[in-house]
Amino acid sequence: xxxxxxxxxxxxxxxxxxxxxxxxxxxxxxxVKNVFAGxxxxxxxxxxxxYPKVLPFILGVEGSGTIEEIGENTETDLQIGDRVAYFYGGxxxxxxxxxxxxxxxxxxxxxxIQGAASMIQGMTAFYLTNEIYKLQEGDWCLIHAGAxxxxxxxxxMAKHLGATVVTxxxxxxxxxxxxKLGADHxxxxxxxxxxxxxLELRPQGCELVLDGVGxxxxxxxxxxxxxxxxxxxxxxxxxxxxxxxLLQLARSIKVTRPSLFHYVQTKEEFxxxxxxxxxxFEKNIITLKExxxxxxxxxxxxxxxxxxxxxxxKIVMRIx
Length: 320
Ligand code: NDP
What we know:
By secondary structure, this protein is of the alpha/beta class. It is 28% helix and 25% strand. It has eight helices and 16 strands. The strands form three sheets. Strands 3, 5, 6, 7, 8, 15 and 16 form a seven-stranded mixed sheet that branches. The longest helix is centred in the middle third of the chain and has 21 residues. It starts with a strand and ends with a strand. Bound molecules: NADPH dihydro-nicotinamide-adenine-dinucleotide phosphate (NDP). NADPH dihydro-nicotinamide-adenine-dinucleotide phosphate binds next to α1, α2 and α3. InterPro entries: ADH-like_C, ADH-like_N, ER, GroES-like_sf, NAD(P)-bd_dom_sf, QOR-like, Quin_OxRdtase/zeta-crystal_CS. Pfam families: ADH_N (PF08240), ADH_zinc_N (PF00107). GO terms for molecular function: mRNA 3'-UTR AU-rich region binding; NADPH binding; quinone reductase (NADPH) activity; zinc ion binding. This is Probable quinone oxidoreductase.
């Protein structure tokens, strides 16, 4: 089968779209014929080695498609031909063997693209706005990189919960997009000091600050967090966060460095959360800023675009 295999870590140049062996399913797994591999920033960390993995491996942690085979003696309600989405390694490929605890059946109303988007970016936006701290009417929430995959869904979820949303973006085009998604205030963080701009809007800071940008923003994100507020540092798009003196948090700020893995530990938790995101799509509470699907064979250019901040919303790659 065709797949993107990482044999050594590095820049986009290590991405190899190549022939490799089709996976064999074992008990407890199903074989998915992928329609789309979802693109996520974490793919760049696996590719570069920031998050180490045993080499060689097939890149990608989320996909959607149909069930082609079910491992012998596997206990599951899933059937051959079912439309599914999953959160599991090896999705940049024609086929992926997935444990049944990491896969969910798609309701008829949910498209393959929505299914893939729900897995990482959707469930992440959900746990950030509902479980790290449940936003409520009257709260303010700062969301960095609001035009991105997680950001664009988090804006809509935070608005739905009644929060006032401030978001940062790097371009005018992205500013227009986040306004359409419902953001109340947009800060162009390449042009102005975002902490000063935010504190001018709300001097006491925000109940919840969502920072997936990392190194470039973390220090100022602390300033934007209200006394006794929550700061989730959940990513490293600009590089990993540098150590800080603990005293900088001595306004009783609760800092967390969460990972989706820990918010979908059991099959039940995974399925419940995925279904909550599907429901938000079905009720039109969230919508996707979908771009035309890219081709998996074009993976190098797709990673270049993601890392040079050219993408917005959800990007999926068609298996071609
Ligand atoms: P995005 O689509 O949001 O892409 C990243 C965005 O980050 C860019 O579009 C850009 O937006 C912004 N950015 C700021 N500085 C830089 C920089 N130096 N280089 C590149 N981009 C930069 O990606 P995802 O939605 O896939 O992920 C967003 C973040 O969330 C990532 O850090 C990711 O690792 C993290 N994440 C964490 C999870 C968890 O559970 N911990 C789960 C899922 C994602 P702009 O141009 O507007 O600045």
